[in-house]
Structures are given as structure tokens and as C-alpha cells.
Amino acid sequence: MKKTLNILLAGSLIFASCSKDFLDSAPTEQLSTDQIEEAGKQDPNVLNGYITGLYATMYTTFTALPADEDHDDFGQKGYDIYMDMLASDMVLTGLNYGWYSNVVRYIATTDYTRAEASKPWNYYYKIIMSANSAMDAIGGSEVEIPADQKDARFVMGQAKAMRAYAYFYLANLYAPEYGSGNDKILPIYTNTDQPNQPLSTTKEVYDLIISDLETAVEYLNGFNRTGKHQINKYVAEGLLAYALGARGTQADWQKVATLTNDIITNGGFPLTTKSQSAAVLDGQGLVVNGDGGFNNIATPSWMWGVDLTLASNLDLVSWWGQVDYWSYSYAAAGDPKAIDKGLYAKIPANDVRKGQFDADELMPINKFYTPEREAMGQRQIVTDYLYMRVDEMVLLNAEANANIGNEAAAIASLKKLLDLRLDNTNYLSTLSGQRLKDEIYLQTRIELWGEGKSYLALKRNKATVTRGENHLYFAGQSFKYNADQLTFPIPQVEIQNNPQIN
């Protein structure tokens, strides 16, 4: 039975900042529940600072294996790269430095001793434990908070959404199948006092994810966030739509259609425009549109992301430092990241997204770039991180409607997006059944290339991917969504340290 909380938090809990000392320690050090509760009594802003630290973990470097200081360890965007490479839509076309070589060779996913197998595990469980700490400090994750205690509900809603986000990615990366099955995949921790836990089933994990997100959607109704790094109701709805789509029952898909429609209709996020999608160059190769580059949190279509500044202290060890030719980066120095050649060939010549990539090396030099566009130019990272944009919700809406047989609505959603990318979308009216689903999946891969969503779509669609000829390894070979090569094993260190796991 759930407990009922009767507590009033100060009105400044969410919105005020806390001390520098606390923020310095929050992203990488665990505070005890007692410490948080006591600090909260002295200064209610502390709990807000703890939530801020939770978000900061998403972009802080060396959060998974601090002692190693690996240059692929920089929070969520680091694992976006892992997933894009596992799904084979992102190609590592050079090995001068070797980062991600074990991922693209599928060594990390077939050898549980590899560090790459433990990094996502450590990162997401750090998020989970931090979220649990915040929830413990206001009565625990099972507490029911009355509707009139808005500040407490806003804290709980964000913490639950972050815990669900972490479990969702763990369930993707460490389990070959979605759904409500009985495969034992992950330990579940819902408070900071639990000892080592055994593996829970896929059903149990997804039940927790969906329950947390449903509560988050309820509690965050009316939350006016101070920045896009915070999860509000619409971001929580987006995460819930992803989780329900992954589980994939007919009832789930109906809910996905409803959730995504609410985001599209009421969220206030316009679609990414044609101009924002790719650089437009003049005869001298200079950019003539100033709103492209996927580099600015102020872009209206962005639902969730973070405003990076010099104070964020990011440089080479960052997503931009791994992928962007126009930053001081591995991509420019000898480890280029490119689009799969087979996927590139499927983009029509009249599609604005074809121009996101250079025609020779297929690097995304016209999709992701700094405003200055100087090769190896940006050393200190101030271009922003994107976690979610409304275009994803339009594609998910199309996918949901296709899965529940509402094909007219699916085509309408897809057309809404593609009318901003293509000169002519009349072909959509000829699609139905599996051909329509396949087109939605293809457009998801094209639209969201490099944004960490291809892997989720691959598993959600139970698809098979074939590597193009520009891959260094396994070129021409095909891999089904549930192949061993596409799912991480539980890392050795967890097996050694958790006696509940055989």
C-alpha cells in the first residue's frame, strides 16, 4: 500500500539555485539520504540543487568510469553514439585513435569483460541511485503527494522521470527483446537502502518504467520549467510514448498516439524547418542560413536538451569532440563519423537531408556544425546538446497510428514532416500495411540520424540492419534486432559484486 505524504516544501524549492559547493559534488558523489534531508531543513534550495546535479550528470565527463577518463565517457550523448553505431547507421570510417572500435566490431557486446559493456551500466545506475536519493528525501518513491503540494510533486515528477529514463535505456541496451516477457534482465532499485537485488523480468522493469512516467506526467502538469534541461510534462509524455511503443501492445500503441498528439497539438513545439535541417551554401561555400547546425537550445522544435556554456567545461571529451568536423575533434583528426552508405543511397536527391552529408566521405558536415564552421575550430564546447525534439513525436505518432490500423492518420503525420523535407510527397498516399510501416521506420532513421534514436527504432520495429560498404567491419552483413551483437551483456564487475546474479 502506498503511503501518503503530508509535507510542505518551500516555494523556492524548484526555482532557486543552491550553493556552489553542493553543485560541485552533486554530479559525481553520492550524498546520504540523511544528509539531504538535514540539508533540506537548513536550506530548501538544496533539494533543487540535487535535481540540478542529476541533470548535470547527463553531460558531465567521466561519470561511468571516473578513474579511466576515457574519451567516450561523457554522459547521455556518449551512449547515443554507442547506439547509433550498434544500429550501424553511424559508421566509424577511421581508426587513428580507436575510440568506439570495440563497439563497431561488436566486441563490447559479446565480451562482458570490456569496459564499454560496463560504462552504460554504471552511468544509468548512477542516475537511478541519484533519483532514488532525491525521492527518499521527500518520503520515498512510493509516497503519494497531495495535489496542493505542487513543489513536492514537481520534484518527485522529475526524479521519477529520470529514473524511468535510465531504466528504459538499460532495458534497451542490456536486453534483446522488448515487451512483457519473463526474461530476467536487470536489478531494480527503488530506494537507496536496498541491498544487492536479483535480476527482474522484462515485464517488471517495463511496469516500473511506465508507472514512473505516468506519475511524472501527472505530477509535472503545471510545472513551468526554467530551462529545457528540465523534464516537464511534455518531455515525460515523450519518454512514456517511447516506453509504451517499445512494449508494443495494441493498447500501448493507442496510448502512444494519444500522448504524441497531445505533445504535437499542445506542447508549443513547431517542427524543425527546412532551413534548420541543413546548411545552405553559396557559391563560395559560405552558409547563407543562420538557423541550422543543430547547435542551439533555443531552436523551437527542441523539447529537451542542455544549454552548454564555458562553465560546462567541455572540450574534446564531448559529443561535439567525437562527431563534429567543425570542432576540435576526433572526427576531423582521423576518426570520422559518417552515415551508412546504404542508408545515404535511400535519401532522395531532392530531400534537404541529403545535403546534410558531404557526397564523398558522407560526414554530417552540413547537419551538425558550429556557427563559425572552421575546421577543428571550436575547442571549448558551447554548442548545445539535443536530447529530444518534436519531430520524433510526429514520427512516433505516425508509427503508432500505422500499428493500430489508422493509416490515414499515419500518412497525415508523416506528410506533415516530409512536406518540410521533400519537394513532393504524393507517393505517401500509395502506402499501406507493412510498406507504410517500413517507410515510417526509414524516415525515422533518416530524420534522426546521429541523434541516438536509430537503435531504439531498430528494436521497436524488430528490424534487421545490413551494413553498407563503407563500414570497416562486417560490411554487407546483416544483423537482426535481437542478435547477440546488438545487446550488451551484464558486465563482469556487476556479476562479481552482486551475489544475487548467477
TrEMBL record:
The SusD-like N-terminal domain, residue ranges: 110-221
Main location: membrane
Compartment(s) of residence: Cell outer membrane
Keywords, alphabetical: Cell outer membrane, Membrane, Signal
RagB/SusD domain span: 335-501
A Pfam family this chain is assigned to: SusD_RagB
Domain of life: Bacteria
Annotated SUPFAM superfamilies: TPR-like
Similarity annotation: Belongs to the SusD family.
Protein name, as recorded: RagB/SusD family nutrient uptake outer membrane protein
Species of the source: Sphingobacterium hotanense
Classification lineage: Bacteria, Pseudomonadati, Bacteroidota, Sphingobacteriia, Sphingobacteriales
